Amino acid sequence: MDVSPLYQYHWNVADRVTEAESNMYELEDTVNQLQITVTQLVITMWSLEVLIEDAKGLARTDNLLFVGFPVEEEGRKLKQFLEQRRKCFVKEAALSAFFFMERVYRALYSRTPGTPLRPIVAKILNYKYRDDILQVAKGSAAVTYEIYGIMTFPDYTNKDQIQRQSFKRVKVKLRVMDLKYTLL
Predict the structure, then answer these.
(1) Burial class (CB in 10 A: 0-12, 13-18, 19+), 145
(2) Global confidence as pTM
(3) 3-state SS of 41-82?
(4) Of 43, 109, 151, 174, which residue is the least packed, with the fewest Cβ within 10 Å?
(5) Are the beta carbons of 94 and 131 closer than 8 angstroms?
(6) String of b and e for 128-138 (b: at least 16 CB within 10 Å)?
(7) Cβ count within 10 A of residue 63
(8) CA 132 to CA 152: how far, in whole Å?
(9) How many other CB atoms sit within 10 Å of the CB of residue 26?
(10) In angstroms, what CA-CA distances link 70 with 5, 141, 167, 183?
(11) How far apart are CA 57 and CA 50, in angstroms?
């Protein structure tokens, strides 16, 4: 009985197993390198998200929040709605014919049905008019639309709101300590 074909078959199988092991080790090395690359990409993505949020924060400096409009009053054309009613927001402010607004396409947060106050976020394309609108909003005269009272606020990022809250705490501490302070 000749066993040489069995030996040959055994050596062929052994060669294939050795080749499969070497391929598996190469794949493990590749997977390890890819895991490092994925980790680096996640870190890069996180840092870019922070930069994007900062850029959004800078872009939001011209935004105003108008709160108190009835739901769906503006229809599908918010920009035209606000520009037609700009006199109600800025009664005393002198606005030129070059007063422009844009709709800000972002949802602040989800609203439950039947909630009476609803924010509308508008970008005022000229910072001077934004400041005029805020000055009128701080004034004694109430801004109304039909029977609804309209409130106007600057649109701050979450980071800015947290900084403002911490500054309010500092102001309270300074008052308690009877220290005079000024804003720069």
Answers:
(1) middle
(2) 0.44
(3) HHHHHHHHHHHHHHHHHHHHHHEEEEECCCCCCCCCCHHHHH
(4) 109
(5) no
(6) ebbebbbebbe
(7) 19
(8) 11
(9) 10
(10) 89, 20, 34, 37
(11) 10
pLDDT per residue of the chain (184 residues) written in tens, 0 to 9: 677 888 888 888 889 999 999 999 999 999 999 999 999 999 999 888 877 776 766 666 677 777 777 666 666 666 677 766 666 666 555 555 555 565 554 445 555 666 555 567 777 766 667 777 777 667 656 677 777 777 777 777 667 778 878 888 888 888 899 888 776 6
Structure tokens at 160: 């800015």
User: Amino acid identity, residue 90?
Assistant: V
Retrieve residue 161's tokens: 């709101």
Task: Copy the structure tokens of residue 126.
Answer: 């000229």
Length of the chain: 184
